[in-house]
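Quick one, tokens below:
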């Protein structure tokens, strides 16, 4: 869930979501880099009461010292993640070298496609750190299957909605897992030309 409106409101919203989903599901929060360091750390302690296990971009991803500051002080059960804005390999290398994250994120639409993503994945593997894909779940499905360091794929509903609008062959998740349809060619997707025609300018 996205957070960072008002710190008290965030805690109330996290409490409400935990109450709604029960105790068995993992709860992830994403601050999109909008907290200050001390504010993020204070929030991490409060979120821990509701078993939040993932705190994404608690501070700006450009603040590698800040990410490390929080990663080293946050509850052990809470992983700190960042990396979705990375384009070049050096960006990811610096993030890993700074010990800024527990899980690195990468987005193949930004980090030089499949080739760039695989290079980031190799960095993670060499650093014994897991990698999580950012958005565009169908784009990362086959790629993720070929990534030993993969932790999980972000299943962003806005993106899924668009993928279903524009493509045939989008698989449904089953028990939290996506599997490629091996009966389909390539990535399994086929552009629905007739459905997208109305968006042509
Ligand atoms: Mg994010």
């Amino acid at each position: 869930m996205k957070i960072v409106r008002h710190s008290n409101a965030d805690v109330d919203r996290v409490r409400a979501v935990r109450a709604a989903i029960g105790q068995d599901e993992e709860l992830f929060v994403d601050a999109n880099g909008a907290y200050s360091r001390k504010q993020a750390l204070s929030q991490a302690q409060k979120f821990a009461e509701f078993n939040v296990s993932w705190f994404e971009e608690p501070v700006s991803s450009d603040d590698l010292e800040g990410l490390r500051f929080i990663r080293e002080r946050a509850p052990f059960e809470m992983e700190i993640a960042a990396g979705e804005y990375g384009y070049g390999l050096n960006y990811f290398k610096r993030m890993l070298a700074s010990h800024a994250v527990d899980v690195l994120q990468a987005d193949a639409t930004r980090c030089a496609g499949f080739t760039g993503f695989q290079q980031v994945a190799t960095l993670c593997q060499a650093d014994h750190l897991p990698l999580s894909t950012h958005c565009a779940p169908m784009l990362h499905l086959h790629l993720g299957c070929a990534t030993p360091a993969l932790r999980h794929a972000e299943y962003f509903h806005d993106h899924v909605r668009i993928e279903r609008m524009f493509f045939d062959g989008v698989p449904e998740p089953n028990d939290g897992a996506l599997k490629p349809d091996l009966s389909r060619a390539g990535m399994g997707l086929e552009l629905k030309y007739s459905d997208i025609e109305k968006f042509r300018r």
